[in-house]
Every structure is written in structure tokens, then in C-alpha cells.
Amino acid sequence: MFDLLKTRFEAFERRMTRRHGTDLTAPGARRVALLHFHLMDHAFLRILWTNLEEIAPGVWRSNHPSAARLRRYREMGIRTVISLRGPRQDSHRLLEEEACAALGLRLETVTLKARRLVPRENLLALLDLFDRAERPMVMHCKSGSDRAGFASALYLIHAEGAPVARAREMLSWRFLHSRRSKAGVLDAVLDRLEADTAEVPMTLRDWIASRYDPAAIEAAFRAGRR
Questions:
Q1: Domain 47-225 adopts which CATH fold?
Q2: InterPro entries annotated for this entry (predicted)?
């Protein structure tokens, strides 16, 4: 029964995605995209709940913002928006691109995953973005719990020189992240980083370039959950 409902739900979502396409100016596309955004991307839950916090001077984290919230961010002085959800042209992306363009906000994109580890190239691209992005800036994923927390931890280590113990606070129940869930694989990255750099001190960038092994970290994490 559950599998049947899941299949029908996924089919319904695909139909909605096809209907709004990638052009919000097409007849009816905006209405369908907004409906998809609120129902399928759960934007209605984020109307009052923002998961917004300043993690360092001029650097914020949050869940996925609506156009109205992006307007408030601009009023706060935000200049750069970093999406950690990747470039896929779903409703959330289309609406965000449109809103940022209208508001004069720079939208940057890096792909992170909540329950899987991305290649080292993605993490190095994120560090590069941290180095060049205009402040004030905000980084977000969908809920602002896992990917935003992981990226915030990396920012604190890379840009603020924070110890891993301090950065790990970005992945906590306070932001609705659970180490015991599959998203705990992100905590496992910080654990490996802390252990490796205790033995051989190095920068985060050097560790990612030379020691970060997503397959090995994922395998060890899965073995520990059995």
C-alpha cells in the first residue's frame, strides 16, 4: 500500500514538474510552479520557520527562502545567496533565480547532499566560493538542517579558523539535524577531519584535496549504524 501511494505521489510530482517546465512566463506555469513549490517542496512549512542564524559576521544560514523572504534578506543587507541544492531546474530553483534577479542578489550554486557525500571537487568549489563571495551572504539548503549545517561547519573551519569541535555545533538538534539519522554521514566527515588533522596538522583545503575519501567515510558510517 505504501509503495503504491509513493509511486502515485512521484507520478503526480513529475506531472506538475512537466507542466511548469523551465519557463515561468509560459501560460499557467507560474501558478503550477508555486503550487509545486509549496506542496512538493514543503515551502508552506517554511513561511514562519526560517532556521535563520548568523554564524559569523555577515554570514548567515537558513532554509530555502521564498521570494518574500529574499526581499527581507536584501533589506538586511544580504548581497549573495548560496544554494546548496544544485542547479536542477525545479520550481524552487526557478522561483529563486527569478527573485534574486529582480532583487539584484547574486545567486551561487554548489551541490551538496544530505545523506550522501559529494566528490571532493564539490567541497573545493564551496571553499572557493567562500573566498570570493560578496558579504553579507546567506547559504541555504531545503530545511536548513543538514547541508546548510555542514557548509556552515566548513565555513567556520576554513574562513574563521574554528576548531572542529566548535564547527560541529552547526550540525545539531537546534537546527533539526540528527547525527543518528542517515544525515549523520556529514558528522562522520568532521570526525574523520578531526582525527586526521590531530595526527598531521593541515588546512581544510589540503585535507579535502589529499585525505577526504567519501566512499571510505560512507562505508565506515554504514558499518557503524548496523
A1: Protein-Tyrosine Phosphatase; Chain A (3.90.190)
A2: Prot-tyrosine_phosphatase-like, Tyr/Ser_Pase_IphP-type
